[in-house]
Amino acid sequence: MKQEHIQLQAKIEKTREELNLLAIKYKFNFQHKEMLQTSHDLEQLILQFLQIRMNLSLD
């Protein structure tokens, strides 16, 4: 159980890093850094980035 928690924490941190890189690439401004504090908020942000990516790939 503890190992699963550690793996999940690592995955969340990697996702945050990837989102930050995307934010820099597309000049997305995180005005409220606390928005990434809960998994629900993180999930919503990921969905928003996926939508942005889909829109960009259609161009």
Q: Can you lay out the helices and strands and say which pair or pack?
A:
Blueprint: H1 2-25, H2 39-58
What does this structure look like?
- The protein is an all-alpha fold and 59 residues long.
- The chain has one domain.
- It contains two helices and no strands.
- The protein has helices at 2-25, 39-58.
- The radius of gyration is 13 Å and the shape is elongated.
* Topology as a string of helices (H) and strands (E): HH
The portion of residues assigned to helices is: over 70%
Low-confidence stretches: none
Number of helices: 2
How many strands appear in the DSSP assignment? 0
Average per-residue pLDDT, rounded, comes to 74
Largest sheet: none
Strand content: under 5%
Task: Estimate nothing, just give the exact number of structural domains.
Answer: 1
Shape: elongated
How many angstroms does the end-to-end distance come to? 44 Å
Structural class by helix and strand composition? mainly alpha
Query: From the alpha-carbon coordinates, what is the Rg to the nearest angstrom?
Result: 13 Å
In brief:
Helix content is 75%, strand content 0%.
Jot down its keywords.
mainly alpha, 59 residues
